[in-house]
Automatic annotation (TrEMBL), chain A:
Native source species: Brachionus calyciflorus
Function: Part of the AP-3 complex, an adaptor-related complex which is not clathrin-associated. The complex is associated with the Golgi region as well as more peripheral structures. It facilitates the budding of vesicles from the Golgi membrane and may be directly involved in trafficking to lysosomes. In concert with the BLOC-1 complex, AP-3 is required to target cargos into vesicles assembled at cell bodies for delivery into neurites and nerve terminals.
A Gene Ontology term for the protein's cellular component: AP-3 adaptor complex
Location of the protein in the cell: Cytoplasmic vesicle membrane; Golgi apparatus
GO-annotated biological processes: Golgi to vacuole transport; intracellular protein transport
Protein name: AP complex mu/sigma subunit domain-containing protein
TrEMBL record, chain B:
Pfam families for the chain: Adaptin_N (PF01602), Alpha_adaptin_C (PF02296), Alpha_adaptinC2 (PF02883)
Role summary: Adaptins are components of the adaptor complexes which link clathrin to receptors in coated vesicles. Clathrin-associated protein complexes are believed to interact with the cytoplasmic tails of membrane proteins, leading to their selection and concentration.
SMART domains in alphabetical order: Alpha_adaptinC2
Name of protein: AP-2 complex subunit alpha
GO CC, any one term: AP-2 adaptor complex
Binding site for a 1,2-diacyl-sn-glycero-3-phospho-(1D-myo-inositol-3,4,5-trisphosphate): R11, G12, K43, Y53, K57, Y58, V59, C60, K61
Keyword Chloroplast: no
Residue stretches making up the Clathrin adaptor alpha/beta/gamma-adaptin appendage Ig-like subdomain domain: 753-864
Length: 194, 983
């Protein structure tokens, strides 16, 4: 079972947290901090699995993570999950985000934190994989967008606007996650950002 | 930075987010947030009603603030209000807020559940999905109760959209986690299992997760899923990657589903049905073969997905553990991964091999990779991987490679990461013990272990070293020599001092012949460490010193000098003080014989597996190990808990923990039962009295300091004799098997049933107590005397026998006991006067209690008093008998039983049984001479009851018919019961 899904940036700032078991708010923050500390001190070319988190699940607990550009994507799971399967799931999540946001970057996760949650809800539910077929997820999100637009009564060119902002802005935060082709060339992922 | 504007126009939100991002400091951020919170609060409380959009915006802001790590304690009601909205986006935000923020015990829960119910019954699938997502997020008991019916229906209904079905499956799974009682059974079972055949692979994947948890709850009920799962798997494995279109992930067909199915199958033993079994084996073989094929893509995703399936297949092969062919193939595949360039694969290969090493079929195949694994230990950069390598080395270790593996692990220990050192120490200690052939090797390894990682050597480990040295005479001299050498290092770990102190105290004499390790040198070497050690270790060293006095009389003055030193005699540590005083007195007063007895070498520890070590290690097994054996783990943990409880884990020798038994055995006064009370010992009349008094005299001298802190004399005795070297005895191996220990009696199986036909016999006997019962009866009265004989060497204190109330039909009045102490090998007699008030079938009982050695025995004893005991036999002639017989013809008065003969039908025997039962056996009454007839009167305080019987044997059929008539139904019934099976 997936116990939690966390995204935080290179400085430990949480960008998404989703817990599939009940933890108090304090505990949630502690888990995020602990996980960041465990993950951030690791080199980028070591393995993507990690034990030693103390706050969730005791010995039956593994952290499976991936580092993309400015962001860490972390899945906290128990031993009933396949490590490589989860690793692929992270990839599906990122690719889906990329499709939904057209070259996703950290900024998208900040301004559209609600949308990220919705995308995640299509991927996982109650701590289990719900859908792994990326096209299907994207389709559902697009339906959602259509509804949203029709309800707002605007044909707003949201995505275009964001893209424009991203192209203008040279801050780290708009670094396209996809551009850092981590899976193929893991070394590039280790670019350290101040 | 310019904020991007969201298309749907929640501009306020974007502005707010930008503001937060522009804050230069944490304080500024908090200030901005507080301002916003105040604003939202006013809006929510304000007179103006907010429209849906505004509510949505504010709720969304609150959500954002919450996700930044701030507490949100309002807005819940507004969020719930959004659920009522018909607008998807508003509903969506409402649900999101509830899912993320809402506490499980919210008082809004009923309202939420009502809204969810409405959405679930909506025609709009997108609303249904929102509702399901919310249930899956919260999934508490209330929701389980509310939706236990609806969700399974959604799940199996033909009208439900695939995407809704997927959600429903996982939603049900979530509810089941918290509320196992809603487990669908019966007709649901088949329908749910058949989801494995669904066209839509997304549905199958979700269903697979659901079935997995259902199977874990009730494997029998869901057994049918095995064959469906195997055929589904087979269809996936044999397909090409083009078959599944969207569910093919980087050329691998449905990898997630394959993994799920392979996991599901690990819940069951290999299929019984040979065709299913062979199909499954084919699948597994195919997966292994595909691993050898060239990659279809260079992308990492492709090999990841492929290997995810492969590793799960290997897990299943290991789980099945009966296909040597597959096991060896799996092992070879993993062997390739051990040197793969992808760190993840090396990690996983080590992890899976750990499991393979435990299978008899593949253990040897795993061993072939020993060198690679050792190499991994040395060269891997990643601690996660190194840890797996340690686990694997531990798992693959056996007698043939133990020396090398232990050597490598010891070597690694010097540079190992701190947080795995303790675990490694345990592993090394266990392997060294388990596979030691030559115990000098064991001693070397363990001392090295303490030298290299002394801080990580737990008490259990060094206790165990001592235990083994004490038990193996062949290694004692070597151990003494080696610790002596180890102690010569300028800086040596305190644990080394402890082990050294103990071993030299016991076996220092074995090396004393060598002038380089003469008694004085040994003593001075140990004492040079004394001032650096903790009080606990000092106490141990003091015991070593007093043992030296016995071993080497020539250094007695030096030792006495140390004991006399102010910092010992007047130490602020009570234990040090007490030991110094006592040992000093002992060395001055006792003669050589007494010293030799008191300070004798420790007896061997009971041989057994070091349970503490193995259980501690069990706990630290890698989680993957545990995945397949979660139940085992629970058991282990339970066992471990009991072990922990049973052992005294306080550090340092303690007077209070001392067991009285040790003391006696050490001094060799077996004849005297130990006692908790000083008086008993003092007034004991056993023949060894004089010895004991002599010992007590030792302490007759003024020992004011001790007396002040530990008043009872007994405490002194305890601490001195038993704890001289009692530390490891107490902690590692409890002396249960070693020295007879009194086991409290908490329940007994007595022989009361044989008293139906007799009045005196042994009622109960075990190794510690014997109970005789003798009873006399007169009409409705009985006088029972119970003789309790103490067969043990212990004294039973506070002995009492009390009737258990509640049986009004028979009154039991105990006479006072002569004494409440039952001495060893002696007896106490308890007289009980009983009165039969009414007929009864339940035996009267007494509660016997006594304390012994700090344990409390307490058990119920049946008094062997049966209804028939209150019989008086009646003589009568045939006519009277049959006229009375006829008079007792009302329903219920007659009870009859027909039964098979248990014994050869023997007239004399039967007659004897009937007479000893208490009534008459009248001859010449029944027209059939084979039959028995008789009568008796039962006396109770209230009434007398006449009883008649007729026993008719049938020799041909080897059967009896027993008929009893009395004027009370319950009496007839009881008498039949009592005579049942007696003929």
């Amino acid at each position: 079972m997936i116990k939690a899904i966390l995204i935080f940036n290179n400085h430990g700032k949480p960008r998404l947290s989703k817990f599939y078991e009940h933890y108090s708010e304090d505990m949630q923050q502690q888990i995020i901090r602990e996980t960041f500390q465990l993950v951030s001190k690791r080199d980028d070319n070591v393995c993507n699995f990690l034990e030693g988190g103390s706050l969730i699940g005791g010995s039956d607990y593994k952290i499976i993570y991936r580092h993309y550009a400015t962001l860490y994507f972390v899945f906290c799971v128990d031993s009933s999950e396949s490590e490589l399967g989860i690793l692929d799931l992270i990839q599906v999540f990122v690719e889906t985000l990329d499709k939904c946001f057209e070259n996703v970057c950290e900024l998208d996760l900040i301004f559209h934190f609600d949308k990220v949650q919705y995308i995640l809800q299509e991927l996982c539910m109650g701590g289990m994989v719900l859908e792994t077929n990326m096209n299907e997820i994207v389709l559902r999100i697009e339906e959602m967008n259509k509804l949203e637009k029709s309800e707002a009564g605007l044909g707003g060119s949201q995505s275009k606007a964001i893209t424009a902002v991203k192209e203008m802005n040279i801050s780290n935060i708009t670094q396209k996650i996809k551009d850092i082709k981590l899976p193929e060339l893991p070394n590039l992922g280790s670019i350290k950002l101040s | 930075m310019t904020p991007p504007v969201k298309g749907d126009g929640m501009r306020g939100l974007s502005v707010f987010i930008s503001d937060i991002r522009n804050c230069k400091s944490r304080e500024a951020e908090v200030k901005r947030i507080n301002k916003e919170l105040a604003n939202i609060r006013t809006k929510f409380k304000g007179d103006k009603t907010l429209d849906g959009y505004q509510k949505k915006k504010y709720v969304c802001k609150l959500l954002f603030i919450f996700l930044l790590g701030h507490d949100i304690d309002f807005g819940h009601k507004e969020a719930v209000n959004l659920l009522v909205s018909n607008k998807y986006t508003e509903k969506q935000i409402g649900y999101l807020f509830i899912s993320v923020i809402l506490n499980h015990e919210s008082d809004l829960m009923r309202l939420i559940i009502q809204n969810i119910k409405n959405d679930l019954s909506s025609r709009n699938p997108i609303f249904i999905t929102l509702a399901l997502q919310c249930i899956a997020n919260i999934g508490n008991k209330e929701m389980a109760d509310a939706f236990a019916q609806d969700i399974p229906k959604l799940l199996v209904s033909g009208d439900t959209l695939d995407s809704v079905k997927q959600s429903a499956a996982l939603c049900l799974l979530k509810l089941l986690r918290n509320s196992p009682e809603i487990m669908p059974t019966g007709e649901w079972t088949t329908r749910i299992i058949h989801l494995l055949n669904d066209q839509h692979l997304g549905v199958v994947t979700a269903a697979c997760s659901l079935i997995d948890i259902l199977v874990k709850r009730n494997p029998e009920e869901y057994k049918a899923c095995v064959s469906l799962a195997v055929s589904r798997l087979s269809r996936i494995v044999t397909s090409t990657y083009t078959d599944f279109q969207d569910y093919t992930y980087y050329f691998v067909p449905a990898p997630w589903l394959s993994v799920k199915i392979l996991r599901l199958l690990q819940n069951y033993p290999p299929p019984d049905d040979p065709s299913i079994k062979s199909r499954l084996n084919e699948c597994l073989d195919t997966i292994l073969q595909k691993a050898q094929e060239a990659l279809k893509s260079k992308k990492l995703q492709h090999s990841n997905a492929k290997n995810a399936v492969l590793f799960e297949a290997i897990n299943l092969i290991i789980h099945i553990d009966s296909e040597p062919n597959l096991l060896v193939k799996a092992c070879n595949q993993l062997g390739q991964f051990l040197s793969h360039k992808d760190t993840n694969l090396r990690y996983l290969a080590l992890e899976s091999m750990c499991l393979l090493a435990t299978s008899e079929f593949s253990h040897d195949a795993v061993k072939k990779h020993q060198e690679t694994v050792i190499n991994a230990l040395k060269t891997e950069r990643d601690i996660s991987v190194r840890q797996r390598a340690v686990d694997l080395l531990y798992a693959m270790c056996d007698r043939t490679n133990a020396e090398e593996i232990v050597k490598e692990m010891l070597g690694y220990l010097e540079t190992a990461d701190y947080h795995i050192r303790e675990e490694m120490v345990l592993k090394v200690a266990i392997l060294a013990e388990k596979y030691a052939v030559d115990y000098t090797w064991y001693v070397d390894i363990m001392l090295n272990l303490i030298r290299i990682a002394g801080d990580y050597v737990s008490e259990e480990v060094w206790y165990r070293v001592i235990q083994i040295v004490v038990n193996r005479t062949d290694v004692q001299g070597y151990a003494a020599k080696t610790v002596f050498e180890a102690l010569q290092a300028p800086a040596c770990h305190e644990n080394m001092v402890k082990v050294g102190g103990y071993i030299l105290g016991e076996f220092g004499n074995l090396i004393a012949g060598d002038p380089r390790s003469s008694p004085l040198i040994q003593f001075e070497l140990l004492h040079s460490k004394y001032h650096l050690c903790s009080p606990q270790t000092r106490c141990l060293l003091l015991s070593t010193y007093v043992k030296f006095i016995n071993l080497f009389n020539e250094i007695k003055p030096q030792i006495q000098h140390v004991l006399k030193q102010e910092n010992n005699l007047k130490s602020s540590d009570v234990e040090i003080q007490q030991r110094s005083v006592e040992y000093l007195q002992l060395s001055m007063i006792a003669d050589a014989d007494v010293l030799a007895t008191v300070l004798e070498e420790m007896p061997s520890f009971p041989e057994r597996e070091s349970s503490i070590l193995s259980s501690i290690l069990q706990k630290k097994k890698p989680p993957s190990d545990l995945a397949n054996q979660q139940q085992k783990e629970e058991k282990v943990e339970k066992v471990e808990k009991t072990v922990m409880n049973g052992q005294n884990y306080e550090t340092g020798p303690k007077i209070q923990t001392v067991n009285n038994n040790n003391q006696i055995d050490l001094i060799g006064l077996n004849a005297t039962p130990p006692s908790n009370k000083t008086q008993t010992v003092l007034t004991s009349t056993t023949p060894v009295k004089s010895d004991q008094e002599a010992l007590l005299d030792i302490f007759g001298g003024p020992v004011p300091v001790v007396a002040a802190t530990v008043p009872p004399v007994q405490a002194n005795l305890d601490s001195l004799f038993s704890d001289t070297f009692g530390v490891p005895t107490q902690r590692i191996a409890s002396p249960v098997q070693e020295i007879p220990q009194f086991i409290p009696i908490l329940s007994i199986q007595d022989n009361h049933i044989q008293f139906v036909f007799k009045n005196a016999d042994i009622l109960f006997e075990n190794e510690s107590i014997k109970i005789l019962s003798k009873c006399e009866y007169k009409q409705n009265l009985a006088r029972l005397s119970l003789t309790f004989m103490n067969k043990s060497n212990f004294v039973y204190q506070n002995f009492s026998v009390q009737p258990i109330l509640g049986n009004d039909s028979i009154r039991v009045l105990p006479r006072p006991l002569d004494s409440n102490v039952l001495q060893s090998q002696s007896q106490l007699i308890q007289i009980l006067n009983c009165e039969c008030v009414n007929d009864f079938s339940q035996l009267p009982q007494v509660l016997v209690q006594f304390s012994c050695n700090g344990t409390q025995s307490r058990f119920e004893l049946n008094l062997p008093i049966f209804l028939n005991k209150f019989f008086d036999p009646a003589q009568m002639d045939s006519q009277t008998f049959f006229s009375r017989w006829k008079n007792l013809g009302n329903p219920g008065q007659e009870q009859q039983k027909i039964f098979k003969a248990n014994y050869p039908i023997d007239k004399d025997r039967n007659s004897q049984i009937l007479v000893s039962f208490g009534w008459s056996s009248l001859s010449g009454i029944d027209p059939n001479p084979e039959n028995f007839c008789g009568a008796g009167i039962i006396y109770t305080s209230t009434q007398q009851y006449g009883c008649l019987y007729r026993l008719e044997p049938n020799r041909q059929a080897q059967m009896y018919r027993l008929t009893i008539r009395s004027n009370k139904e319950s009496i007839s019934k009881r008498l039949i019961e009592l005579l049942d099976n007696q003929f």
